[in-house]
Amino acid sequence: MVTRIDSSSTESTWDILKGPEAQLLEIRCDVRQAALLTVLLSELPLACVPAITATLEHEGVRVLTPAITLQEGLRQGCLLVIGTTVQFAAAEAAMAIQSPDCSAGTAELRLFAELAMSYPRLDVIGGKRTVAIGGLIDCDVKPSGVRNHLVNATGHAWNLLENRSDFLVVTGRSDPTALQTMARSLTAVSTCPVVPWPQNGDDIFSPMPTSPVTGASFGAPADPGVVFAMWHPQSPAGLVSAVMSTHANTERVLVTAEVPAVLAGASGDVRKWPDGLPRLDAVVLSRQWLSDVHPVVLSRTVANLVERGTRVFITETPELVARVLDDVLTTKS
Question: Contact at 8 Å (CB) between 301 and 263?
Answer without folding.
Answer: yes
